[in-house]
Amino acid sequence: MSLGRSTPLFWGLALLAGFLGVSNGFFLLHAVEEGIDADEGVGLCIEERKVISIFERSAPSVVFITNKVQRRSLFSLNVTQIEQGSGSGIIWDRAGHVVTNSHVIQGADAVSVTLADGTVWEADFVGGAPGSDLAVLKIAAPRDKLIPLELGSSTDLKVGQTVLAIGNPFGLDHTLTKGIVSALGREIRSLSGKTIHDVIQTDAAINPGNSGGPLLDSRGRLVGINMAIYSSTGSNVGISFAIPVDTVNRIVPSLIRDGQLMTYDPGVILVPDWYAKQRRLTGAVIYRVIENSPAAKRGIEGGLFTQRNAFIPGDIIVAIDGQQVNGANDYFALLEKYEKGNVVTFTIKRGRAYFNVDLPLVVIQDR
Fold first, then answer.
1. 220 in the Ramachandran plot: left (φ > 0), alpha (ψ -120 to 50) or beta?
2. Residues 68-77: pLDDT tens digits?
3. Percent with pLDDT over 70 in the chain
4. What is the pTM of this model?
C-alpha cells in the first residue's frame, strides 16, 4: 500500500518516526511511501529488492546443459557417456523447447538438461544455426515445470542501460551478474567462421558455463542470449557478448519448424534497427551489398564511409511485394515465407526517389 503525505496515517507515522530516531524513522517513512514491507525491506534499497525479484522470477526459466560424449573403455570395451562440456539455456515455451548456443552442444553424442528444481531430462536436438551460434533442444518435462521468459526488444536498447546475466558458470548453480550495455552493433566470428551481426556488448560477467543463458533488462525481459567473452584466458575481463533477442526471435521459430535456418535474400546486409531508429530512418537500411549477389548485379547500393569515418546509409528497402517494411525485423519476417529462387519485387528508396526492382532470392554464404 502507498500512502500520500496528506493522509492522517502518514503524519501519525511521522510522529512515531521521531520517537524511533532518525535512521529507523526515515526507513519507516520511506517504506510507507514506496509500499515496502518494513520487516522484509530492512537493509535493502529499492534497487536491490528489484534485482532480487527479477532473479527469483527468472531463475526457474534458466537451465543447466550438459554435453556428453561416448567413450569405450580400453579394458572392458564397455561404452560409457562422459561429460565433455556444459553451459546454460533458457526455456522457450511450454512445449519443452530449450534455446542455447550452438557451441554449447557442439560434438555431443547426448545432451541433458537440468531444470531449476534439480530434475534432469534427456534432450533431443531440434535444430541449429551455427552461423548465428543458436540451437534448439526439446525435453519431455511436464508443462508446469516449463516457465518461459518474457521476451523484450533489442531494438530499443541503449548504451548505458542496466542488464542482468543468469547462468551456471563453471558448473555452479544459478549465478547472477549485473552490468550495463557497453556497446551495440558489434560483429564477431562464430565458431563456424561466419560473422554474427548486431551483437550486444556488455560488462556483465559471462564466464564459462554462462553461454546460452539469458541477458535481461531491468524489467526482467529477455534482451539477448549470452554467447562469449573476449579474453585470452577464457575468464571474464569485462567484455562479453550476447545475441540480440530480435535475432533470436527471428531464428528460433525457423529452427523449431524446419530444423535449420531457412531464409533467403537477394544479397544485402542491413544496419541494425536501433541504428536506423536513432537516425530516424524508416525501412530496411542497407549496410553492404554482397559481391556477385543478385542485388549487386542490379546496382543496389550499400552505405559509404567518409574520410572522417562517418557512415552514410545506402539504399533503403521500404516494401517487399507491396508490403511495407519498417525495419530489418520486418524485412526478415516477410522473407521467411518465400523459397529459394522466388523472384520478389523490392521497393527501394534512394535519396528522395523510389523505384521497384525484381530480385531472385538465393542462399548467401556471407552471413
1. left
2. 765 544 444 4
3. 77
4. 0.68
Cell of 332: 526478415
76 is catalytic: no
The span from the CA of 212 to the CA of 7, in Å, is 50
Long-range contacts of 227-236 (CB under 8 A, 24+ apart): 227/101, 227/103, 227/133, 227/196, 227/199, 228/133, 228/188, 234/208, 235/207, 235/208, 236/205, 236/206, 236/207
Which residue ranges form the domains of the chain, and what is each CATH number? Answer: 8-43 (no CATH), 62-145 (2.40.10.10), 162-257 (2.40.10.10), 263-360 (2.30.42.10)
**How many Å apart are CA 52 and CA 58, to the nearest integer?**
10
Strands 79-91 and 120-129: unpaired
- Catalytic residue check, 182: no
Choosing from 182, 211, 240, 254, which is the catalytic residue? 211
Choosing from 97, 103, 174, 197, the catalytic residue is: 103
Check: CB of residue 146 under 8 Å from CB of residue 121. Answer: no
- Residue 338 grid cell: 518465400
Residues in the chain: 367
Gap between the Cα atoms of 367 and 358, Å rounded: 22
Distance of CA 231 to the CA centre of its chain: 21
